[in-house]
Amino acid sequence: MKAADRAEFALRARTIDGWFKLATRGITAVILLGLGYFVFKSVDAMSGKTTSFSSVINWLVDLRLSEVVSYVVAAGTTTAWYRERRLRQKTIAGTRVHVAHLEHVIDPQRTSSGLLPTGEPAKEDRDD
Known about the structure:
By secondary structure, the protein is mainly alpha-helical. Helix content is 75%, strand content 0%. It contains 3 helices and no strands. It has helices at residues 3-46, 52-61, 65-106. The radius of gyration is 27 Å and the shape is flat.
């Protein structure tokens, strides 16, 4: 492949990627605007009426800063735990073949632990 052909291909790929990113952001913006509109219309329809929704709004307004911080910290730690777990499973699955090869090179008589590719025990080996 000639250098000019590679440059033209790279330019086309960047152009297509740019249009795709623009479309993705546009769709995201439309969805968020639509969601905001429907939330606004829901609140507007319930304004002036006493409903269970009013008690939820009152609860949200009456939250103290310490309560808000505790909810944010709880949500943040839960999200961080989940993301770390997924990353660990991907890392284990990605290095599994390489580690198995190295173990076989060091000790050809070594037997497998029977773990799944994600590093978890097989269903019949679990304690739960």
